[in-house]
């Protein structure tokens, strides 16, 4: 992989991050004056001016922007007025729970999605293929909150085998992870199937077979890496959806993660927490996209060799 | 829910994929369901036996008629004694309306930006594509939540925010298609005749790329329904006393143990609607543009 390729991607990642920070700053400033929002209506004008000076709101916008960015770099994401604690602290506290849920769901997605895709493409046209594809259509159209409620109704209310909400044990993790993973597994499954189908008929697959390469190694070693680019792309794209989905699923199952925190913060308009979560997610997405780009270069050396990216 | 159609990812057509995969029976069922949804959405006032906010506290939590409930309430009543069936009809209207407006806003803005980027190239193109990349890399649900938090929720703002969903996919698609079209003979021919670019785009290029955009609408529409219902489900979208399918599910989940009929019908309607549009879209995609086959969104 050429250093130029990595550098270009890194630059792009930083640019996206700057854009995200700017977006939050603009929205924050457009949403109104925090001083007048916080203080009662009959506050004397002198007090308002003093507060504005104290928070640096009387300075020109570019300076405010730079101060804002400098604050973020120092880890100053503002104070949550509900908890009276730094917003960053509150968010970081919740992060492990979300990671636990998200990574489990991601593992499930890959396992189910890749499995279903491989299974369907090898059984093209027969009942297994149709059944798998029916599952992907089902998973794709099913709203995750409805799936969650159905699971609760069945497993927690009717059969009473799993806890309906909360966290703390493996049993608590099962339903949220399945709910979150299903729709993404469906998409990954569909993509794996179609890109594998494309590869399976390539001459190099026939050659491998003629050479006597065992079946498993043909699929794992020859077909999958060549079908990998679209699959990696869709998994990368879906990470964003996974985060969005986690917000909903955490609310359904009262999972004490960042998503639930965000929903509550939005409901109470606790802006410091909202902006911290948004920036954290933006950062995560930038890192994920960067890794996906690097993975492209590794999967397909032609891309990594510094060939200029052809924009569609 | 963040998605994009990437033309690079589409599968080239092979002989073996060239067969009808789904029975038209499925397609007609889906169409029938969607027609029913549309009629219901338009005629909710006429069909619904009760108003959507009409309470009858003496008739709280009545089970559906087919489970031995009051025959006057086909799908039972909710915690405030409101008729679930009537609310379902009105909720459907709200959700469909939002999804329609959303599709319109997103597709028009996205397509226009795509045309602009392809026409001017240079820095206009760079900026549009930068915004597209940024949008594609941020989960839309999160952006929507942030904007609703910062500006406070109102129906108009909610409609606009939801409307922006998916604009980047239209923009990227249109830009690529227009660039392609510009390089083709017919666009060049009309251009040499001295036709104004605007006219070339509207009269000649747009009709040629419309089929791909229509397919994108069928991918976009169910996602919009899911976005709206998700936000409403979280209590951050459509606000009571108005109702939407997501809101009904959200309100119903607190009663799930005792009165499941409050939530389940709304969920089933969402599921069937998104399913129908997706299946119909798949079929349409096969018919309109064989090269897009199997390209999942």
Would you summarize the structure shown here?
The complex is a heterodimer of chains A (about 300) and B (about 300). Chain A is mainly α and about 300 residues long.
Percentage of residues in helical conformation of chain B: 55-70%
Q: Give the fraction of residues assigned to helices of chain A.
A: over 70%
Assembly type of the chains comes to heterodimer
The helix/strand class of chain A is: mainly alpha
The largest sheet of chain B is: none
Largest interface: A-B, 66 and 63 residues
- Low-pLDDT residue spans of chain A: 307-312
Please tally the β strands of chain A and state the result: 2
Largest sheet of chain A at a glance?
A: 2 strands, antiparallel
- Through-space gap between termini of chain A: 22 Å
At the fold tier of CATH, the topology name of chain B is: MetI-like fold
Question: What gross morphology of chain B would you assign?
Answer: elongated
Q: Given the helix and strand composition of chain B, which structural class is it?
A: mainly alpha
Q: Please count the helical segments of chain B.
A: 11
Word description of this protein:
The complex is a heterodimer of chains A (312) and B (297). Chain A is 78% helix and 1% strand. By secondary structure, chain A is mostly helical. Chain A has a two-stranded antiparallel ribbon. In chain A, helix 6 crosses helix 8 (170-200). The two termini of chain A are 22 Å apart. Chain B is mostly helical and 297 residues long. Chain B has a single domain (25-296), classed as MetI-like (MetI-like fold), CATH 1.10.3720.10. Chain B is built from eleven helices and no strands. Chain B has helices at 24-42, 44-47, 84-120, 122-137, 140-151, 155-163, 167-182, 185-192, 197-233, 245-252, 264-288. Chain B is elongated, with a radius of gyration of 22 Å. The relative contact order of chain B is 0.16. Chains A and B meet through helix 1, helix 6, helix 7, helix 8 and helix 10 of A and helix 4, helix 5, helix 9, helix 10 and helix 11 of B.
């Amino acid at each position: 992989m050429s250093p130029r390729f990595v550098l270009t991607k890194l630059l792009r990642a930083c640019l996206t991050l700057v854009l995200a920070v700017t977006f939050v700053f603009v929205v924050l400033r457009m949403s109104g004056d925090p001083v007048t929002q916080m203080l009662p209506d009959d506050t004397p004008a002198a007090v308002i001016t003093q507060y504005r000076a104290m928070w640096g709101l009387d300075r020109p916008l570019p300076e405010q922007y730079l101060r804002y960015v400098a604050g973020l770099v120092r880890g100053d994401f503002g104070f949550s007025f509900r908890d009276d604690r730094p917003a960053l602290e509150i968010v970081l506290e919740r992060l492990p729970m979300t990671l636990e849920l998200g990574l489990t769901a991601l593992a499930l997605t890959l396992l189910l999605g890749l499995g279903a895709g491989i299974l369907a493409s090898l059984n093209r046209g027969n009942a297994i293929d149709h059944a798998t594809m029916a599952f992907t259509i089902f998973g794709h159209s099913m709203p995750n909150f409805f799936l969650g409620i159905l699971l609760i109704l069945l497993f927690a209310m009717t059969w009473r085998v799993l806890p309906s909400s909360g966290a703390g044990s493996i049993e608590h993790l099962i339903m949220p992870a399945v709910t979150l993973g299903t729709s993404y597994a469906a998409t990954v499954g569909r993509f794996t199937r179609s890109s594998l189908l494309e590869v399976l008929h390539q001459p190099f697959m026939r050659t491998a077979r003629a050479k006597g390469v065992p079946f498993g190694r043909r699929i794992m070693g020859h077909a999958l890496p060549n079908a990998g680019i679209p699959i990696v792309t869709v998994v990368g794209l879906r990470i964003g959806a996974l985060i969005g989905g986690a917000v909903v699923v955490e609310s359904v199952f009262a999972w004490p993660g960042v998503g639930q925190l965000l929903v509550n913060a939005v409901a109470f308009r606790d802006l410091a927490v909202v902006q911290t979560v948004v920036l954290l997610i933006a950062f995560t997405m930038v890192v994920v996209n960067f890794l996906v780009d690097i993975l492209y270069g590794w999967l397909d050396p032609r891309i990594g060799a510094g060939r200029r990216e052809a924009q569609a | 829910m963040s998605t994009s159609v990437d033309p690079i990812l589409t599968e080239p057509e092979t002989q073996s994929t060239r067969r009808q995969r789904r029975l038209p029976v499925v397609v007609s069922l889906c169409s029938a369901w969607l027609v029913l949804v549309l009629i219901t959405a338009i005629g909710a006032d006429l069909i619904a036996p009760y108003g959507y906010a009409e309470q009858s506290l003496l008739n709280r939590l009545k089970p559906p008629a087919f489970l031995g409930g009051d025959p006057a309430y086909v799908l039972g009543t909710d915690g405030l004694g409101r008729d679930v069936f009537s609310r379902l009809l009105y909720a459907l209207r709200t959700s469909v309306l939002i999804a329609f407006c959303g599709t319109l806003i997103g597709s028009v803005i996205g397509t226009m930006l795509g045309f602009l980027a392809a026409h001017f190239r240079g820095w206009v193109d760079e900026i549009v594509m930068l915004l597209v990349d940024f949008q594609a890399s941020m989960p839309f649900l999160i952006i929507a939540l942030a904007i609703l938090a910062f500006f406070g929720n109102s129906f108009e703002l909610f409609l606009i925010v939801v409307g922006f969903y998916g604009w980047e996919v239209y923009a990227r698609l249109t830009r690529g298609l227009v660039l392609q079209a510009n390089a083709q003979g017919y666009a060049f021919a009309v251009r040499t005749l001295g036709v104004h670019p605007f006219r070339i785009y509207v009269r000649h290029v747009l009709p040629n790329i419309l089929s791909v955009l229509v397919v994108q609408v069928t991918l976009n529409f169910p996602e919009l329904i899911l976005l709206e219902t998700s936000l409403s489900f979280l209590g951050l979208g459509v606000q009571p006393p108005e109702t939407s399918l997501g809101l009904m599910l959200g309100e119903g989940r607190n009663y799930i143990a005792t009165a499941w009929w409050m939530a389940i019908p709304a969920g089933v309607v969402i599921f069937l609607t998104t399913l129908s549009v997706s299946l119909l879209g798949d079929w349409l995609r096969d018919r309109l543009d064989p090269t897009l086959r199997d390209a999942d969104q």
